[in-house]
Amino acid sequence: MTSQAQVRTGKGEGETVGVALLGFGTVGAEVYRLLGENSEAFTHRIGGPAEIRGIAVHNKNKQRPGVPAELLTDDAKSLVLRDDIDLVVEVIGGIDYPRELVLTALNAGKSVVTANKALVAAHADELAEAAENSAVDLYFEAAVAAAIPVVGMLRRSLAGDQIQRISGIVNGTTNFILDAMESTGASYEDALAEATRLGYAEADPTADVEGHDAASKAAIMASLGFHTRVKFEDVHCEGISTITADDIEAAQEAGYSIKLLAICEHLVNEETGEESVNARVHPTLVPQEHPLASVNKSFNAIFVEAEAAGELMFYGNGAGGNPTASAVLGDLVGASRNIIHGGRAPGENAYANLPLADFGDVRTCFHINMEVADRTGVLAAISNVFADHDVSLRTVRQEDGESTARLIVVTHSAQERVLDAIVTKLGELDDVKAVNSVIRLGA
Ligand code: NDP
Ligand code: HSE
């Protein structure tokens, strides 16, 4: 059980909430603009004005039209500790430095709103404990799928249900890239450059394309959904940097779109009844008639399967300055209300503490694209490898080339560890020139 939160009294109706904005990039600049443009509405919604009293940035001398110079500082820590700051909004990014700032704020009795999924996925326990000890709030709605209210839905709306599975597209940059490659034939490099220009990509886009950003979001969703701490390193993670134009074409020909999916499952062993959780991120072939296949550009979509609610789907803007600012400002209103009126938002609860499933046990269907010698007997040799591992084939498609053929095999459901063994065996066959790609199937 979590400890009983200390009683928190409010500043009182009509008092001003002093806000420190840490970061003034894609997200921070929009938070500042929208809060300024709608300040009267925010005052009504909160019960008192929310005033940005300082903005921490890396480079104080950068031109920031419309921002009073006296608000800017490059000393974020001093800003956080100022007596006139009640609430800290962290939109810098990274892990170590924001961790230090967020812990400093929480330990000093200031509530925190952050959009930083990497930080939350890596240090949720420590941050939640610091918030609990100081009886303040830690909000992070923008950390998962930006404007789509996933965190609030898992923390509050579905708090009375048993969630079985959460899956979907939670990274706008990779969805933008895959969609551009599929729909316009854009190159991977050009599509990534455009996603970066539009403000979707992380400061280091490796986090997007290698799946790390989606894995952080998967860790957060699994932790909240299954009441079990799942960290970034617990998530099996594969990105899209190895997906080629050939993979996209082969997928299209077979009636699929390739999407980077995050999948979080609550598993129950049918024989023993033992429960466990699994979270993974990998490129996935989604049938073109499935709703996820038509989630294009930088949009995100999340499916939730819950015992009583059944299937739910959430769709919307998952990246970009404005959509992310919307989620940050929603949190700012919630945290500010509690500063004014007293009380706290629902906190973390990892009471279920379920074990993590072994990734090798996870079952999926696979789409395997091989280059093989174009001669009789090859197909039989390949089929035998699958049969030897007790894996049945759903479809086999062959396209003849000049001296070799492209062979595409789709399996029925098989364990990850069995598929690994099959790929190793295929690679040892003389007639298999290359296993070009192995992509999982399903949504
Ligand atoms: P940007 O890179 O656009 O902005 C980062 C900001 O942080 C800049 O203003 C930069 O200052 C400032 N900064 C960097 N280092 C320091 C430092 N040492 N001290 C003080 N300020 C510093 O990032 P985004 O706005 O895109 O992202 C911010 C956070 O929001 C990240 O955690 C990201 O994962 C998350 N997020 C982003 C989304 C998006 O679509 N962009 C969506 C959802 C979440 P300067 O201006 O001087 O360079
Ligand atoms: N880089 C992230 C994305 C931002 O592309 O989805 C939103 O979290």
From TrEMBL:
EC number: 1.1.1.3
Keywords of this entry: Amino-acid biosynthesis, Methionine biosynthesis, NADP, Oxidoreductase, Sodium, Threonine biosynthesis
Residues passing through the membrane, by range: none
Residues given in the record as NADPH binding sites: K117
Molecular-function GO terms, alphabetical: homoserine dehydrogenase activity; NADP binding
InterPro entries the UniProt entry points to: ACT-like_dom_sf, ACT_dom, Asp/hSer_DH_NAD-bd, HDH, HDH_cat, HDH_CS, NAD(P)-bd_dom_sf
Catalytic activity: L-homoserine + NAD(+) = L-aspartate 4-semialdehyde + NADH + H(+); L-homoserine + NADP(+) = L-aspartate 4-semialdehyde + NADPH + H(+)
BP GO annotations: methionine biosynthetic process; threonine biosynthetic process
Residues binding L-homoserine: E202
Residues at the active site: K217 (proton donor)
One Pfam match: NAD_binding_3
Listed pathway(s): Amino-acid biosynthesis; L-methionine biosynthesis via de novo pathway; L-homoserine from L-aspartate: step 3/3; Amino-acid biosynthesis; L-threonine biosynthesis; L-threonine from L-aspartate: step 3/5
Residues reported in the UniProt entry to bind NADP(+): L22, G23, F24, G25, T26, V27, G28, A29
Top-level taxonomic group: Bacteria
Free-text function comment from the UniProt entry: Catalyzes the conversion of L-aspartate-beta-semialdehyde (L-Asa) to L-homoserine (L-Hse), the third step in the biosynthesis of threonine and methionine from aspartate.
Homology family: Belongs to the homoserine dehydrogenase family.
Entry protein name: Homoserine dehydrogenase
